[in-house]
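Record pair follows.
FIRST:
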Amino acid sequence: MFGKLIGEVFGTFILILLGDGVVANVGLAPRLAAPAYNWNTITFGWAFAVIVAVYVSAGVSGAHLNPAVTIALAFKRGFPWKDVFPYIIAQVVGAFLGALGVYLVYMDGLVKAGMPNVWCTGPGSVFGQAFWGGAGAASAGGYSFVNAIVAEIFGTAVLLWGVLASGDSKNTGLMHNLGPFLVGGTVLAVGLSLGGPSGYAINPARDFGPRLFGTLVGTQGLFADGYWLIPIIAPIIGALIGIYLYDLLVSKNLPAK
């Protein structure tokens, strides 16, 4: 069990190091003129962050890397309930350490910029006050909390469909260990198609661990309102809806093998 928890810590660390890393890269634009970076950069960066993290940790822990995935697998795939809380703690610790890694890599730029929120989603994030300017910056963040909840539920449900399909031997199936690419591609699709209203946390640990770290290093307002609960609760709801719908609409209709 200790080895599995280390796998979850390390995998989630990689996820946030590369995921929040691309957000910092876009927000601070340290090497290119700011317009060279855009939403596509962020979505592709997060997708490959998932791919690398899953490849590294899947053989050790199953690469949940997400409390919503862990809880959904406990409900419908026989993952032991006694392991759920340890997995979640490991994921939050890994996410916190990943944010520390981003801070160390981008420390000078973050300090000079006043420690902006490159850590987590919601009001005050770089999505709401885009450092690169442009027409989109004025309208970013204009969605209600209810709209953000809906987006997180849909986004996490889609994530579960990709995760479940990637490991479903009765479905089309993936050969030669290509499952992580489907999971990463699902995250890319969610970011490109559904990520606008909430910033697509779709992972409670991904949001909460860096939110804690950002608060400690001086980013303001990360717990100023109730928004921080949305990326914790809504992804869990979305994951449960996603796994139940997959079994209802897909699993029960697959041919026996």
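SECOND:
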Amino acid sequence: MLGERGGKKIEGFDLGNSPLSVTKKIVNGKRLFMSTTNGTKSLQKVQNAKHLFAMGLPNRKAVAEKIISLKSENVLILGSGWESSYSLEDSLAAGALASYIKQNCDFEINILNDELQAALALWDVWKDDILKCLKTATHGKRLTSLGDYDDDFKCCSELDCLDIVPAQVERGVIRAS
């Protein structure tokens, strides 16, 4: 089991918040149960979607290419936020995803809300210094106050380095493809 509450590993869980602890050696061939402060709630809210993917900056391109290939009429990009509030890093990721889709699909894209317009603008401002944006965000400062997360920040700020598309295969179950 892996999970966190407020950025700290949940007592009794094997792994916590660090993506660096989720290595092939540790998790290969195992079914993982994950619980997070915000992500779990967000995924539950949209678990009835026809297609549901989990994305971070490292797998942005893979997820974007999957979305483009579906040629869906409507796409919802949902950031988890923090405690039901705004999250700078989630908006950055939403802008990164929308930017990639806009630049790489062969059909017209219509942005239907101000939140995504703002996310695109945010991406344009920070795309050349993702690491600084993550550390500037309130959640980044919260993690920094808990300990040394520099390697985690670097990992999470890498763009398009993973070709994994975590997709919901049944309600509540996400599998990497």
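COMMENT: Residues 1 and 31 are 9 Å apart (CA to CA).
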